[in-house]
Amino acid sequence: xxxxxxxxxxxxxxxxxxxxxxxxxxxxxxxxxxxxxxxxxxxxxxxxxxxxxxxxxxxxxxxxxxxxxxxxxxxxxxxxxxxxxxxxxxxxxxxxxxxxxxxxxxxxxxxxxxxxxxxxxxxxxxxxxxxxxxxxxxxxxxxxxxxxxxxxxxxxxxxxxxxxxxxxxxxxxxxxxxxxxxxxxxxxxxxxxxxxxxxxxxxxxxxxxxxxxxxxxxxxxxxxxxxxxxxxxxxxxxxxxxxxxxxxxxxxxxxxxxxxxxxxxxxxxxxxxxxxxxxxxxxxxxxxxxxxxxxxxxxxxxxxxxxxxxxxxxxxxxxxxxxxxxxxxxxxxxxxxxxxxxxxxxxxxxxxxxxxxxxxxxxxxxxxxxxxxxxxxxxxxxxxxxxxx
Length: 389
Prior knowledge:
By secondary structure, the chain is an all-alpha fold. Helix content is 74%, strand content 2%. The chain has a two-stranded antiparallel ribbon.
């Protein structure tokens, strides 16, 4: 009888254990309550994951699906289980930064930095978050940490330069940008920024120097060529702008502005015979504007093409009555008529210019009125003389 009871108890224990292990319904899945979980690694071997590692892996899955809130909960679970979990703190900082919660990102990154002092990526990330908060002092403090090890640290100097710019310290910003170039000598973008800053200081020599350096470092970046051409053009150094605009018109043959500027530059650099073709191309692309027609009329007059000058002047006037180019358009129209001996008609155009009170052209038009009347007298005198002969 005693032997039978022992046997029955053994069977009962086996039955209970079997039920618990086979259904799986009562297994606790809370990360903090389980000890380890076995998973298959990428090489096919079993791998034991601790609860905080499970939470971290879950966060990676959430992040891959763009579920930032769920990822943050998993990462916070991971660091609550293991406060020294460096990767989880770093990922938590990155995730907060992505959703623009910069202060929380800073806190997480600082915990990571305590675990990995001197980590450049963490220092940079903290500085970046302070930049987004426009806390220049704190951002500067962290980027200066990078320069303690390497005075020419590229990222550190770039961001310190940005901070200096934000404080309107142009000379200081240039110094930092130049230090960044020591470690990255072909950084064309930084060269372009230095050029812009020298422009603010009205240092044209350095402005052009660094733009040319940027083009040399990155010849396929046509934005630098556009800036350099415009800088020369604005500075009225038309001769220097010509080869760049010639290149730009080849690269961008359908942009009217480049043809217009090239044509104007030709006209100002004693290459007037080449100007009309570029200006006409600009008109054909854009439909024309008073400024371009005014340049064309002036160039045609200078090249003794008076009928074309009149046609161009009329076309310009027909666009919103010539806009702010009306004075020069009427003046060039009058000058062409005068060259064609139509002095009375020229007087009408010059009178129009005078009535516009233009600071540049009206005074010249007044002189032309006197001249046209003199030309009329000379013409009439010649006629009288011919009658007597």
